[in-house]
Amino acid sequence: MSKEPNRARILLVEDSASQAAVYTNYLAAEGYDTEAVDNGADALAHLETQTPDIVLLDLRLPDMSGMEILRHIQECDMDSAVIIITAHGSIDTAVEAMRHGATDFIAKPFDATRLRVTVGNVLDKRRLSNMVISYQQAFERNRFHGFVGASIPMQAVYRIIESAAPSRATVFITGESGTGKELCAQAIHRESPRHSQAFIALNCAAIPRDLMESEIFGHVKGAFTGAFAQRDGAATRADGGTLFLDEICEMDIDLQGKLLRFIQTGHFQRVGDSKEEWVDIRILCATNRDPLREVKAGRFREDLYYRLNVIPINLPPLRDRDDDIIMIANDMLLRMSSEENKDFKDISSEAAAALQGYFWPGNVRELENVIRNIIVLNDGSRVTPDMLPSQVKQLLDRSIGTVAEKTPGVVYSEPVNVTPSAGQVRPSEIRPLWLEEKDIIERTIDLCDGNIPRAAALLKISASTIYRKRVAWGKVGEC
After folding, report:
1. For the chain, what percent of residues have pLDDT higher than 90?
2. 31, 89, 384, 402: which could form a disulfide with 398 (CB 3.0–4.6 Å)?
3. 3-state helix, strand, coil in the chain (%, to 5)
4. Looking at the whole model, is its pTM more than 0.85?
5. Are 281 and 240 in contact (CB under 8 A)?
6. What is the CATH number of the domain that holds 245?
7. Is 4 contained in some domain?
8. Residues 6+ apart with CB under 8 A from 356
9. Which of 205, 231, 197, 203 is nearest to 217 (CA)?
10. Residue numbers of the domain that contains 226
């Protein structure tokens, strides 16, 4: 019984018709899609139009050396693995070919098993290599549907969005204010099969409670004072697309019951109407509160929470995103400089350290305000520390005592005046704790070749903590 065709495509370059027929039969038995040519010119012509997964290449051809074909594959950066076919007496030549880009070689004579193992190993290696490349590309993304950032927490968010987008499941987005919850919802919509349909967003905290039901489900004429005509709600406008309910924990508890039924059935009634309507929408929601705490406090229905929390996404605060802070700041700087007709191009290392060390309670939204403030109130091509707003610049301006008070985990003090006993060190040999800590952290950074996030991971602290401490140490040194 013949095997199912293998997706791997193989080009066999062999001038001996009898041997080519044998090798082709070996490969056909494994289900590979194989094409054979008997000279170099035909091999090059084939490679002009197709890119096989593997080229089985005999180095001795009637019109040219197989090395010329190997060079062509390398120069054109073709995604083809090359297996050299060689006689026992030419193994040194095959090894030389491998130095020039060939993946493996196989010495004549060989049987079907030897060929199968060699080809299988090369294909496995290619698959693993492609998986690693794909993973690296996914892991190293620094932009994703409006998000800017390459940190590990954001890579996890990107992957959840990609996995969740094709589904109809509801998604519950949580995170502090300013972390980009609506941007996350928009990314899910754009990645989904509904991307060409409407994306309707409602902020439940911005709409009066007595109007919220009408905003979601619509109303008929005369349903209440001021309802002069029938009006479509967000549910109707989002039909076929996505409805995003931001700050959903602000929704009135009575309306939550109607929302639960709507999510479960797709049916709803306009305010003032007895007729039911049905729509096909996907629900996304978000809150900056702890939803479980709201459930325990009785402000949010438990059954609604579990109905919405099918796929949870928690957006990390900016302070936990390490180098993303400067990446986002630079992106905003260039964009806003153009908008404001300014010449800013980059951020000085001192200003960058202050941005890294700041806590960012308002997250990305606060960073955006800070960058806009700098651009509007200053001129120049580079952001310097003196341009920073007071809440950020204070990290650079604090005295030693203030730094010791404000920076958790760092103690600044004079050497302790103690009387040594036998076997103890003298007071003059005791160093301030902050210096000992500085030595440990700087030594770890050196061991990590200057990679601060890696050093932070080894020390089990956040990278932003290291940046804050380094700024503080610089100020201490000046005193």
Report:
1. 45
2. 402
3. 50, 15, 35
4. no
5. yes
6. 3.40.50.300
7. no
8. 325, 326, 463, 464, 467, 468
9. 231
10. 145-316
